[in-house]
Amino acid sequence: MTAAALRRGASAALLAALAAPPPAPAQEAPAMPPAGAAPLLDVVADGVQVYACEARGAGPVWVFRGPEAALFDDAGRQVGTHGAGPHWRLADGSTTRGAVAVNAPAPRPGAIPWLLLRATPEAAPGRLREVAWIRRYDTEGGAAPAGRCESGEAARMRYSARYTFYAAPR
User: Fold this and answer.
1) Residues in contact with 119: Cβ distance below 8 Å, sequence separation at least 6, in sequence order
2) Are 56 and 160 in contact, with CB atoms under 8 Å apart?
3) Could you give the dihedral angle defined by the CA atoms of residues 113, 114, 117 and 121, in that order, rounded to the nearest 10 degrees?
4) Mind listing the pLDDT tens digit for each residue in 40-61?
5) Which residue stretches of the chain have pLDDT < 50?
6) Closest alpha carbon to 119 in 91, 157, 78, 90
7) Which of these, 38, 46, 30, lies nearest to 162 by C-alpha position?
């Protein structure tokens, strides 16, 4: 290819890039803590969301029972667990519970929602003692099974998610 042909190709690519519409502005991430909340800990959860089939007025339905997951740091070391309540417990003995404040649909089909939870830490010392907010995001899987169920049946749906624990704004 000649130098002139290369210049024409580069010019055409530059013109195409300039003519393209600007990228859409980034959407604000859902389920964010209040401004000024400082991140304390970021972990990845790997486990299951547990569902039970219960008889209801319109027939049997899947009802969420709780998570069972291990928590891992960025180096892949298990640093705690996550269970029903919901609660989080770290290897240092600290624990916290959470109550849903914001529930946002996950962008991936079949994934459980992204959440912002208001934390209520236990009095024990440790990394979770100062937690005020917990954010669940980047979820994969975990949604209730589709279709009918038989009363008394149980399902354990594999999921993963990121959890970031935040201190209250100062």
Assistant:
1) 96, 97, 98, 128, 131, 132, 133, 134, 165
2) no
3) 100
4) 999 999 999 999 999 988 899 9
5) 1, 3, 5-27
6) 90
7) 46
Instruction: Give the list of residues 6+ apart from residue 114 with CB closer than 8 angstroms, or none.
Output: 30, 31, 103, 104, 105, 106, 135, 136, 137, 139
Give the per-residue pLDDT at 19.
42
Residue in the structure block whose two tokens are 């959407």: 27
Query: What is the DSSP pairing of strand 131-141 with strand 95-104?
Result: unpaired
Query: Residue 127 pairs with which residues in a beta bridge?
Result: none
Is 116 in contact with 135 (CB distance < 8 Å)? yes
- Distance from the Cα of residue 65 to its chain's centroid: 18
Q: State the Cα–Cα distance between residues 19 and 14, nearest whole angstrom.
A: 9
Tokens of 132: 């005020």
CA torsion sign for 75, 79, 84, 85 is negative
- What is the maximum alpha-carbon separation in the chain? 76
Query: What pLDDT, on a 0 to 100 scale, did the predictor assign at position 37?
Result: 97
Cβ contact 144:154 at 8 Å: no
